[in-house]
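Sequence only, no structure available. Ideas?
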Amino acid sequence: MVRRSSLSVLAAGLLSSTAAIAEGLPAASSSPDEIVVVATRAPARLDQIGQSVSVLTEADIRADQALVVTDLLLRTPGISYNRNGGPGETTSLRIRGAESDQTIVLVDGVKLNDPSSTGGGYNFANLVTADITRIEILRGAQSVLWGSQAIGGVVNIITAEPIKPLQADLKIEGGNRGTFSARAGVGGVSENVLWRVAASHYRTSSVSAFDARFGGRERDPYHNDTVSGRLRINLTSDASIDFRGYYSDARNDFDSTTRDDLEYGRTKELLNYTGLNFGAFDGRLKNRLALQYTRTERMNFNPEQRVTTTTFDALGENLRFEYQGTLQITKGWQAVFGAEHEHSNFRSASPTATAPSPTPAKASTDIDSGYAQLQVEPVQDLTLTAGLRFDDHATFGSHTTTQASAAWRLFNGATILRASYGEGFKAPTLFQLFSDFGNKALQPEEAQSGDVGIEQHVWGNRVIAQATWFKRDSVNLINFVSCTSIATPNCANGRFGFYDNVARAEAEGIELSMTLNPIDPLTITANYTYTEAKDRSPGSATFGRELSRRPRRTANATVSYDWPFAVTTSVAVRYGGRSFDNATNLTRLEAYTLLDLRASWQVTANVELYGRVENVTNETYETTFRNGTLGRTGYVGARLTF
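Reply:
I predicted one. Tokens follow.
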């Protein structure tokens, strides 16, 4: 349970919002008219959404100047992370204390996950900002619309679209530790065709993945090349074809947890989307038929190994057929419904000096799904949403999830009350089902989550304050079980362990945020999250312990000022509270505070110069035990538009 002191903080946040109304003081920002897609699979105003959503716009992404998406997401409420070293090392992102592989990542509407990884999730290490212009973060269990893995939430990534007949842009940036990045994009839009192609390159010599405090000396460099593109052809006034593509090729050097070594990895990620959009009933029914394909290749190499330098080789693929319909039944009544078929397969092998060409583990599975969600406005300013999903998995069988939410706008939208309940599930991965440690009797991980929040707008939206309480209970969590402590048929044939549904967890907390714009040039944003994420596995030696690598407290604050001579400066602070690196809570990761300074100068309408210093105080910290992190680092760059 959330401690009384934390509940007092929530109460204080709610009371301060009420006091702001009475005294006419400023509150926070983010327009209630903002249109989002991730919560309903169809465009909807933010003040009609009952779930907790954050939106990072193109202006937000540009102002932050971050090179990797994780650094952007960490500025929003409810998100924490751990990375096994500097940029490019394995990165796990958690929403409200859920596992990283319980978060769905969408790139231009395509679910990007890796069926060959143990948990089947997405490694955020190689997701660079590149051509991204918008990010939507949906918190809480969201399996009705988004299916398996949506226990923690959904991160929706959207790349740029042109708005002129012909336009181009270029960004070049450099910094210490051998950092260099460049991005270029070109595209155009006419009456019948929209197109864009973009490419980016990012490299850095970084730091040692094995922390220098423990003896790490050599650097572990990283480089990433990303290409994306889209083409839309309007066939008629209400029919079009969409083609989208994304490809990333990355290399990272990494270390063991005890020493420097020369190992490195290559990761290639590909996604393709082909969709047909068409309307019916005078545009009241919008239909989408789509074919989606994703492919993730991972290989690790050790130059010091004699017989074979390859130490790991894995391939994961998803092929998804999808239909979605959006029906405007009448004013204030909208239905979203659809059907999906997903085929996944994986291959994985770990060559060694004694077995340089092992027989790879291979498997595939299918899942068929159908969903429906109804959004209604029974009375003015009250929006109710409810949905149902049915999934039929080829291995573990069928599963049903439900979801409901409400958004109530009061005082002409100055106050918005929100509440939501959602169920989430995560199907056992191919590795957990069919690898040498697999268990075909596994059941899906399940979760029930809910949140209640208030959003207060004051002083003509110059102040917007939000407070949200959330809770999630998760059962049937899949863990690795050692055969040394248990006797079961799963331990036959000499296996030393297997995967089983043995764990349970709960998370509860509060999220507070506020944006103030007291005068036009000055903007202040801040958020605070308190999360209690605990192991509730019956009979476990870790029952009641905090889940590893989930800081109880995280906070962010940014102060920006637009000077009259076309210069913008900002100061940003990020706080990560103490956490534990292991399930027994014996290895402690200390709290840290990072200070960043940023500046940009709009030289002309088409030229911008910018720069930043990250970790100004050269704070020493770690998000995983014995893994290095960046100290003070400076960057300068330029953006050009044509």
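The chain has one domain: 4-641.
Hope that gets you unstuck.
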